[in-house]
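User: quick one - fold this with 5'-O-[(L-methionyl)-sulphamoyl]adenosine bound?
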Amino acid sequence: MTAGKPAYYVTTPIYYVNDAPHIGHAYTTLACDVLARFKRLDGYDVRFLTGTDEHGQKVEQSAEKAGVDPQSFTDKVSQNFRELSKLLNFTNDDFIRTTEPRHRASCQALWKKLVEAGDIYLGTYAGWYAVRDEAFYAESELEDGPDGKKIAPSGAECDWVEEESYFFRLSAWGERLLKFYDENPDFILPPSRRNEVVSFVKGGLKDLSISRTTFSWGIPVPDAPGHIMYVWLDALTNYITAVGFPDQEAEDFKTFWPADVHMVGKDILRFHAVYWPAFLMAAGVAPPKRVYAHGWWTNEGQKISKSLGNVIVPSELVATYGLDQVRYFLLREVPFGNDGDFSRKAMIGRMNYDLANQFGNLAQRVLSMIAKNCEGRVPQPGTLQPEDQALLDAASALLPELRTEMDGQQFHSALIKVWEVVGAANRYIDHAAPWTLKKSDPARMATVLYVLAEAIRRLALLSQPVMPDAMARMLDQLAVDPNARGFEALEAALEAGTVLPQPQPIFPRFVEEEAAAQGSGA
Ligand code: MSP
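Assistant: Sure. Structure tokens for the protein plus 5'-O-[(L-methionyl)-sulphamoyl]adenosine:
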């Protein structure tokens, strides 16, 4: 741990390398990136982990289809996920691949602990398996599909599997899991998801098959030739591998485990909120503090699927609307935890109204008035009036409120709160009308512009986690020292007389091509 700083550990799911990165991957990792950035700015020692899930039948089959061996296949596709981080300006501190030696050692050590605890036994699995989900299903969960196929609730096709397998005694963990959920009411969020998990566990747990023998692309089970570990046991273990497991005395492990948040999509909650804490408790390792399950995006009202050809590609979104615009939209548009719809209209609305009109225009008006009327220097304020102080106080009061929202992963509420103050600043400028004061009361004009510039500085500091580039540019325009942009800088204030650079617009408006063409023809 960095001296005196509290620790914060946030993780994304590790992504299957059978697929190109899409909006789902971008969304999960973005949420984690914003938490990580917020906590760093707020003085925490942060560990932010993402990576790729590279074993199992699904990846093996994808490699076969591509005509390459699984290792070369995963080497190549894993790279696409590293590039996603660069593209979206994600600040993960580590990138784990389940094919790394550190991970194999960690999985095998965890396995041995489960054996020692008496929670693993050898049997035969005979039942349904969906390769797409890498999940076992009970017959009662399945529906009949075309050609006599069995279909899982996720829509994935299932195969009948019969093979020798090691089992984890999950059935013995039901009561202990329920007690754990009870004692840790915020372990699973949002609450609706928690209720689903609790009723699933109350419905009774079956022992879980945790090894496979009919293919070989995975981590070998110790002392059991022919068996490889079930890919979810392998994958979940990444969260402890990355902080040094099996060395539980490792500095990183002691500092960062248990993780503060495992961020996941709603489709993979059961693995994280039922199997994972059961494995850990059985091995005598503390479970994570929280699993947060977010919702799914649709595209213009339609379910996103490769077969419909409506997959949203992050690089295309960024090229069309701009990086920070996309980051803002994804977190502002939908209450975090709910499903949401991506529509071009909504995206452009947020970009033009919230960003260009409300925030961008505010900054642009204030900075150009300062450039023109105050010799391009931070103006010297006079005595503050109650309305001046009210605006500055409203901006400062945001920090504790945002801490609460971030600790509950309520990104949309955090942004709504910031925009309430953006709205207050716009009302303040309209009411104070500094442009009318230039002749009549230049001293008051200077005060008003100072108050606005200072309010913008605070709003920009607080908006950095969601829009790091745009806010860096806004803070540059206020000549804020790049090394003094943590939240402790909220206590400071702009210094009158500081020379400011020439103002530049921060948030362009989105101009529809047709509209632009018409405009130029008129
Ligand atoms: N490999 C497992 C996770 C193992 S973690 C120990 C896995 N990988 S995945 O590549 O399929 O994960 C995709 C992530 O993207 C999941 O969190 C999933 O919920 C999310 N999404 C996939 N499609 C999505 C949308 N349409 N909308 C939002 N998120 C979605 O699962």
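One thing worth noting: The pocket of 5'-O-[(L-methionyl)-sulphamoyl]adenosine is lined by residues 13-16, 24-25, 27-28, 53, 235-236, 264-265, 267-268, 296-297, 304 (CB under 6 Å).
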